[in-house]
Design a protein that fits this description.
Blueprint (H helix, E strand, L loop, with lengths): L4 H8 L5 H12 L1 H6 L2 H8 L3 H10 L5 H14 L3 H11 L6 H14 L1 H4 L2 H13 L2 E6 L2 H15 L4 E4 L5 H6 L6 E6 L6 H13 L2 E6 L3 H5 L4 E4 L12 H17 L1 H19 L6
Parallel strand pairs: 1-2, 1-3, 3-4, 4-5
Helix pairs in contact: 2-5, 4-5, 11-15, 15-16
Length: about 290
């Protein structure tokens, strides 16, 4: 298992002074920014001094910020490779007696970190965009397709018009013909920027639809195409799935919307229950 910034933070967190701990947590959560920014830029983002940033790098066992940045670049490259990600995860789950517990703890840690990684102004804009849309179109590829389906299904159950897609290749072109200006496109793209992700976001812009991207590793490139970007905490440096935070975001989005439309949301769920009785054949009115 590679000796990464996250693993060093995990083993040294209790010994770091508060200011350095804040810097270390920021850097572990924003590897793409750390790889590209200077000590001064990182310091401004955290609200500290560049000297504290350099000190933090050394407290984490690096010779300086330059070595830490090389480590960040290496981690970014590895998470592009699914086999490398799985290998690293298995390396962290090396205790045969407590593998499941490690996954549970790491998953809880990732979900718990959403409170810090999600910007409240972006969240409010995302909820408003969903409520104002004619339809929410959820899209994801591979495992993210399951998140898209979960999100659309959850939103339908609280009264929003919502559909999901995990279509790739040429068949996607047919679906994109149906994208409309009143839609909100919600794209789940945790780690890899597939060509289809870029195409659906570009199509949304062409037709005047708003777009929201939920991502762990692609915040910078997706900001060039999506109106809103929600960043989720790193998962590839732990045993947690890259989908766990996205599922939590989809659920939180549904709950927030339902709370703002409580009466209609409850009424929709009641209608769903009635339809279930009809489908199952135990409708009391029949």
């Amino acid at each position: 298992m590679p000796d990464t910034l996250s693993s060093r933070l995990e083993s040294r967190a209790e010994r770091l002074p508060p200011a350095e701990l804040a810097v270390a947590r920021y850097m572990a959560a924003h590897l793409d920014l750390v790889a590209a920014r200077s000590a001064l830029e990182i310091a401004e983002a955290v609200g500290t001094s560049d000297a504290t940033v350099v000190r933090t790098a050394r407290s984490l066992g690096y010779t300086g910020l330059r070595e830490l940045k090389r480590d960040a670049v290496a981690v970014l490259a590895r998470r592009e490779d699914p086999a490398a990600v799985l290998s690293d995860r298995l390396g962290r789950a090396d205790d045969p007696q407590h593998r499941a517990q490690r996954v549970f703890r790491d998953s809880a840690r990732v979900v718990g970190a959403l409170d810090e990684s999600i910007r409240l102004d972006v969240w409010e804009a995302a909820v408003t965009a969903a409520l104002e849309s004619d339809r929410v179109v959820c899209y994801g590829i591979g495992p993210a397709g399951a998140v898209a389906e979960f999100c659309a299904n959850s939103l339908r159950r609280v009264g929003l018009a919502a559909v999901a897609s995990a279509t790739t290749g040429l068949s996607l072109a047919d679906e994109l013909l149906g994208l409309r200006g009143g839609d909100l496109l919600v794209v789940f793209a945790p780690l890899r920027l597939f060509r289809e992700i870029s195409v659906v976001l570009d199509r949304a812009r062409e037709v005047g639809a708003r777009s929201l991207a939920v991502t762990e590793a692609l915040a910078q490139p997706l900001r060039e195409r999506a109106d809103l970007v929600l960043e989720t905490p790193p998962s590839t440096t732990a045993t947690a799935s890259e989908s766990i935070a996205a599922f939590a975001v989809a659920h939180a989005l549904t709950i927030d919307i339902a709370a703002r439309t409580r009466e209609s949301s409850v009424a929709t769920m009641s209608r769903l229950n009635e339809l279930r009785h009809r489908v199952s054949g135990d409708d009391p009115e029949r």
